[in-house]
Amino acid sequence: MTTATKVPVKPLGDRIVVQPLEAEQTTASGLVIPDTAKEKPQEGKVLAVGPGNWDESGTKRVPLDVNEGDVVLYSKYGGTEVKYGGEEYLVLSARDVLAIIEK
After folding, report:
1. Is 51 exposed, middle or buried (0-12, 13-18, 19+ CB in 10 A)?
2. pTM score, two decimals?
3. Mean of the per-residue pLDDT values of the chain
4. Are the CB atoms for 62 and 54 separated by under 8 Å?
5. Are 97 and 85 a contacting pair, CB within 8 Å?
6. d(Cα 61, Cα 14) in Å, to the nearest integer?
7. What is the pLDDT of residue 90?
8. CA quadruple 68, 73, 74, 76: dihedral positive or negative?
9. Running DSSP on this structure, what letter comes out for residue 76?
10. Radius of gyration of the CA atoms of the chain, in A
11. Pairwise CA distance, residues 38 & 25, whole Å
């Protein structure tokens, strides 16, 4: 079981904070990919999860499908990149998460 890193950024509503995982540095044949040619990563570790949005009646919160510590696949252009305390984070809406990766 993995434990999530404590992050000083607390998401609100249906938002989550993700730390993007590094993209592959080399190709299958062993060629090194320069930084300018790398694609934006679409996989990351969930560091913090918001409380969820309110239901239609406004009486209770609807929890999110992801938990802290999950590795998720997210939309290529989703979320907002944030730098805080020398670290880079991605704040995503729960609808930008495409899948949870089970390893």
Report:
1. middle
2. 0.76
3. 83
4. yes
5. no
6. 10
7. 93
8. positive
9. T
10. 15
11. 8
Answer yes or no: are the C-beta atoms of 49 and 66 closer than 8 Å.
yes
How far is 41 from 80, CA to CA, in rounded Å?
Answer: 13
Q: How far is CA 73 from CA 34, 51, 55, 58, 63, in A?
A: 23, 20, 26, 30, 19
The stretch 73-102 carries a mean pLDDT of: 91
- The least confident of 17-26, 49-58, 94-103 is 17-26
* Torsion angles phi and psi, residue 96, rounded to 5: -80, -10
Query: Higher-confidence residue: 41 or 80?
Result: 80
Report helix, strand or coil for 70.
Answer: coil
Name the residue with tokens 């000083």: 8
Contacts of 59 (CB under 8 A, 6+ apart): none
Reported as a pLDDT band with limits 50, 70 and 90, residue 21 is confident
Are residues 103 and 71 in contact, defined by beta-carbon separation less than 8 angstroms?
yes
Residue 99 clears pLDDT 80, i.e. is over it: yes
